[in-house]
């Protein structure tokens, strides 16, 4: 390039004849860079291009415009073209291209790899890589890369960057847990994310004094949303005045006061308790009960005596049906905190579910000794004492509960049962009647009325009162089959065969395969002299239960005594003995059938068999058998 003197060799400031127009023309003809006076034009360095790219990207972020983003990308591209070894150029270019949407995730990660290859000791390249790994949901790889970022930051003594790395690791770990939950990953994968999350938690909190949380995160470790989310998740468990990693004295804020600040002594920190609490809190947010249980189990392993974790783990086990594990948790809690009544009560109830009644009763009594008079525990204790057949003790517990709720229907019905077991029939009847007055659930009241009716019918023999009770039970619940069955039995005993048969027919409609119902129907039809119908019903019962010895015998009796057909009835009695060889009555009836058709020797054998069976199964008067046998050969 010609220098300035050569270009202007005809120009002189002393030349008065040189016009301004000629000067302008001369300048317009001058080549670029004439003013540098023989120096070649300079180009920006790769580092300067990176700076210009940052400025354009910053402008784009404050006022998004494609032009600014395009300029930033152009600067970054020029930088890496100018210096292919400039590692930060690759990471910045990757971020800008990804923001523009003009690059695939795979190529983005490739740029990050180039950055790491050219500058393997820079933790920021690893941290950038984790961002794109998160976009790819490669959370297990993130944990490895974060570890490398942590290692390089320590090697390079970039301790200020460690906080950012640790908190980013915690944020990604939490995302990994969430991803495992939403994708319903196997428990092993889920546990991997949990363990990694709380490893990063330890590191993160070791760089963050607790008082930052107390003052509204005035000095957060970093200002991105991932770390802010991690901070919000973890810091609620931090206690004022604590720090992890070193003991410090937090300084209260003086923003709204002119008083001098007074340092607050730092309380001793418990890292295990803190992180068990964190996991326990996280578990409450997990909908999958398997994952929830895995979380709590992990927390419990870290700190076996952490109270909130043990509590929630016990309830989680119980919800998931792991009664033995739940019981072990509450046992542990009751030993750790012997003065906590709730733990003794919960432990006792779980012992009861496994039918360990004496131990369960002891634990509930222990709970009540600490917190006397609690209605729920008194009620449960009474139930347990009933199950253990400790009726006097149960009555005491239920009476204590009744003092608090005098008209509680369940207390009244349980007391009625206990009084019945103690042979206080009058007291039992009174309590059942009172329970009916105060109960509200129709089905429950129906069951109580049926029980009251059974007591009146079977023990008090008060048929009218029993009839009223059964009627009430059926009015309250038309599908109460037990009440209908007992009503049918009562009506039969009262001689009202038609009404009894009507109830049995209703029962048969409700349960057509109930053989006992058909057997009762057959018997009533026989009593009503409807013998053919009785036989038909018995045959229908045998079609359901072809090996029912009682029905064979009863049908044989109808055919023998009402139809006077020994020939047809004998095989029926034989079948009864086939399916019940110890059936004394069937052997006797077989003798009668054989005697009727003239087979006296075979009849004698049948009567002899009945006599032998009588000693084993005395179903009838032995004299009746002996008389039939004696009269068999009388001339």
List the topology elements.
Blueprint: H1 4-7, H2 20-29, H3 46-62, H4 66-82, H5 87-100, H6 105-118, H7 123-135, H8 139-155, H9 159-182, H10 187-205, H11 211-214, H12 225-234, H13 271-284, H14 289-302, H15 307-319, H16 323-336, H17 341-353, H18 357-370, H19 375-387, H20 391-404, H21 409-421, H22 425-438, H23 442-458, H24 463-476, H25 481-493, H26 497-510, H27 515-527, H28 531-544, H29 549-562, H30 566-579, H31 584-596, H32 600-616, H33 622-632
Helix pairs in contact: 3-4, 3-5, 4-5, 5-6, 6-7, 7-8, 7-9, 8-9, 9-10, 9-12, 10-14, 13-14, 14-15, 15-16, 16-17, 17-18, 18-19, 19-20, 20-21, 21-22, 22-23, 23-24, 23-25, 24-25, 25-26, 26-27, 27-28, 27-29, 28-29, 29-30, 29-31, 30-31, 31-32, 32-33
Summarize, please.
With 635 residues, the protein is an all-alpha fold.
3D structure, described in words:
With 635 residues, the protein is mainly alpha-helical. It contains 33 helices and no strands. Helix 25 packs antiparallel against helix 26. The radius of gyration is 47 Å and the shape is elongated.
Q: Which terms would index this structure?
A:
33 helices, disordered N terminus, mainly alpha, single chain, 635 residues, 0% strand
């Amino acid at each position: 390039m010609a220098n300035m003197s050569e270009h202007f060799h005809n120009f002189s400031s002393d030349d008065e004849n040189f016009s301004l127009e000629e000067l302008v023309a001369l300048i317009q003809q001058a080549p670029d860079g004439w003013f540098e006076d023989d120096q070649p034009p300079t180009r920006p360095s790769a580092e300067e291009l990176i700076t210009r790219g940052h400025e354009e990207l910053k402008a784009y972020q404050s006022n998004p415009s494609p032009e600014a983003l395009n300029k930033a990308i152009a600067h970054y591209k020029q930088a890496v073209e100018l210096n292919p070894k400039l590692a930060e150029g690759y990471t910045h270019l990757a971020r800008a291209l990804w923001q523009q949407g003009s690059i695939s995730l795979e190529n983005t990660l490739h740029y990050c790899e180039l950055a790491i290859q050219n500058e393997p000791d820079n933790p920021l390249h690893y941290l950038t890589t984790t961002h794109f790994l998160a976009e790819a949901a490669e959370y297990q790889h993130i944990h490895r890369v974060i570890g490398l970022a942590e290692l390089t930051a320590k090697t390079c003594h970039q301790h200020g960057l460690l906080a950012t790395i640790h908190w980013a690791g915690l944020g990604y770990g939490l995302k990994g847990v969430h991803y495992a939950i939403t994708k319903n990953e196997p428990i092993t994968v889920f546990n991997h994310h949990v363990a990694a999350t709380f490893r990063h938690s330890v590191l993160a909190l070791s760089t963050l004094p607790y008082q930052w949380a107390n003052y509204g995160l005035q000095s957060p470790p970093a200002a991105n949303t991932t770390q802010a989310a991690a901070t919000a998740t973890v810091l609620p468990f931090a206690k004022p005045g604590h720090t992890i990693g070193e003991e410090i004295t937090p300084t209260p804020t003086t923003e709204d006061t002119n008083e001098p600040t007074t340092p607050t002594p730092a309380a001793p920190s418990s890292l295990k308790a803190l992180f068990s609490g964190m996991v326990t809190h996280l578990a409450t947010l997990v909908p999958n009960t398997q994952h929830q249980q895995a979380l709590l189990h992990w927390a419990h392993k870290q700190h076996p005596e952490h109270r909130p974790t043990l509590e929630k783990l016990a309830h989680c086990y119980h919800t998931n049906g792991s009664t033995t594990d739940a019981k072990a948790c509450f046992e542990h809690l009751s030993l750790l905190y012997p003065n906590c009544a709730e733990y003794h009560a919960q432990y006792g109830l779980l012992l009861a579910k496994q039918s360990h009644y004496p131990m369960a009763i002891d634990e509930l009594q222990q709970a009540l000794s600490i917190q006397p008079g609690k209605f729920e525990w008194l009620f449960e204790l009474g139930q347990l004492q009933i199950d253990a057949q400790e009726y006097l003790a149960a009555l005491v517990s239920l009476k204590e509960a009744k003092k608090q709720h005098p008209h509680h229907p369940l207390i009244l019905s349980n007391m009625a049962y206990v009084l019945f077991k103690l042979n206080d029939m009058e007291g039992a009847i009174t309590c059942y009647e009172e329970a009916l007055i105060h109960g509200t659930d129709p089905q429950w009241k129906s069951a109580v009325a049926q029980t009251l009716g059974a007591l009146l019918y079977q023990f008090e023999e008060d048929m009218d009162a029993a009839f009223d009770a059964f009627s009430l039970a059926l009015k309250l619940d038309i599908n109460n089959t037990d009440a209908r069955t007992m009503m049918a039995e009562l009506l039969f005993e009262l001689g009202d065969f038609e009404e009894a048969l009507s109830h049995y027919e209703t029962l048969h409609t409700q349960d057509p395969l109930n053989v006992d119902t058909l057997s009762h129907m057959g018997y009533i039809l026989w009593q009503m002299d409807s013998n053919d119908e009785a036989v038909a019903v018995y045959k229908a019962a045998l079609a359901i239960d072809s090996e029912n010895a009682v029905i064979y015998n009863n049908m044989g009796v109808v055919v023998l005594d009402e139809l006077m057909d020994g020939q047809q009835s004998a095989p029926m009695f034989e079948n009864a003995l086939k399916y019940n060889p110890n059936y004394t009555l069937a052997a006797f009836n077989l003798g009668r059938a054989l005697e009727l058709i003239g087979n006296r020797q075979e009849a004698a054998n049948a009567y002899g068999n009945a006599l032998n069976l009588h000693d084993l199964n005395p179903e009838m008067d032995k004299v009746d058998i002996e008389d039939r046998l004696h009269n068999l050969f009388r001339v």
